[in-house]
Amino acid sequence: MAPIQATVLIFCRILAFVVLCPIFSQKNFPSLAKIVIGMALTVLCLPTTPAIPELSLFMLTVFVIKEVLFGMAMGYLSQLVFTGVEIAGQLIDFQVGFSMAQAYDPTLQIASSQYGKTYYWLTIAVFFGLDLHHRLITALLLSFRIVPLGSVVIQGTTVEGIVKLFSQMMVMAVNLAAPMIIALLLVDLVLGVISRSIPQINILMMSLSMKTAISFVVFLLLLPNVLSYLGKHLPDTVRYLQEFIESFQ
Question: What is the pTM of this model?
Fold first, then answer.
């Protein structure tokens, strides 16, 4: 009975992680595929996971809840960088004027912005290009050695670490969006001078097309720097996850 209970606990932690982690958490990713991936990773973890004594039904329920919460916490941390990228895109869209054109994106399950989706898929490409998906899965599997089944205890330092990571995600979003926002603010400044100098010009209609075109040009010019920035900070996703897991030792 104990091996079956251990299998259930391992599966709960892994499935909770898969539901919230990057790539797998998308709406159009099949639910059956998530379950199959969770079962495959569970089979990989079984030989290396320390055995547990047989549990009563009440203790098994408590352990399942703890494993699900721990898996969700790991999935949330692995998604932080992607959330920061989406926030950067939304900040840019607000400045360009694309906020009015936001529509519900079934892939991300939010009212996604145009630049938000562009930055998100760029991040996905860099994520796979750096082979970080394998490192992310490796960190998940190692969590069973560092944090045995049922031993999850949330500490004050762990909560402080999550808050710190959230603040770093906001800093990343601002740094990623700052060059585009500054360029568009300069465009607004120039258009304001033109409107004061030549009142007959319809600046509102002109600004919509000008800001859109200039934002595209600036985005293409900044694209190498954006990819370099993402390549530098995306590995932090795995590092954050590993530090979070090690905080439970």
Answer: 0.76
Backbone φ and ψ for 108, nearest 5 degrees, come out as -95, -10
- The structure tokens listed for 178 are 């700052």
Identify the CA nearest to 144 among candidates 34, 7, 1: 7
3-state secondary structure of 107: coil
Q: Residue-wise over 115-124: b if at least 16 C-beta within 10 A, else e?
A: bbbbbbebbb
Q: Which residues are CB-contacts of 23 (< 8 A; sequence separation ≥ 6)?
A: 29, 124, 127, 133
The C-alpha atoms of residue 87 and residue 84 are separated, in whole angstroms, by 5
Contacts of 201 (CB under 8 A, 6+ apart): 194, 195
More confident site: 249 or 164: 164
Structure tokens at 72: 């969700």
Is the pLDDT at 159 greater than 70? The verdict is no
Compute the distance between CA of residue 15 and CA of residue 45 in angstroms, rounded to an integer. 13
Provide the pLDDT confidence category of residue 176 given band limits of 50, 70 and 90. Answer: confident
Average pLDDT of the segment spanning 42-57 = 76
pLDDT tens per residue, range 133-146: 888 888 888 888 87
Residues 6 or more apart whose CB falls under 8 angstroms from that of 103 comprise 111, 112
Determine contact, residues 13/67, Cβ cutoff 8 Å. Answer: yes
Q: How far is CA 248 from the centre of its chain?
A: 22
H or E stretch at 111: strand 110-112
In the predicted structure, residue 240 carries a pLDDT above the cut 80: no
